[in-house]
Design a protein that fits this description.
73 residues; three-stranded antiparallel β-sheet
Amino acid sequence: MRPKGFSGYGDMAKKVHLQLRFPLGGAVLDYRAERSVAHRVAIELSRHGVDVSIDDNLRTGLADLPHEELWAV
């Protein structure tokens, strides 16, 4: 399963916009993360019903994914 906006494995160290949309009217959270980390987060959280989108729309003030290092290889 590929998350929305995932276009492949090129330039995995590049920072991307990661959006997490929790089910049943839950929170929508936006973060900045390395592409490889965002992909891992997407795979895991989508198993739990979270809608995950990854794109290159980095905005000023976008927070880093908390504890991003825990998702890194």
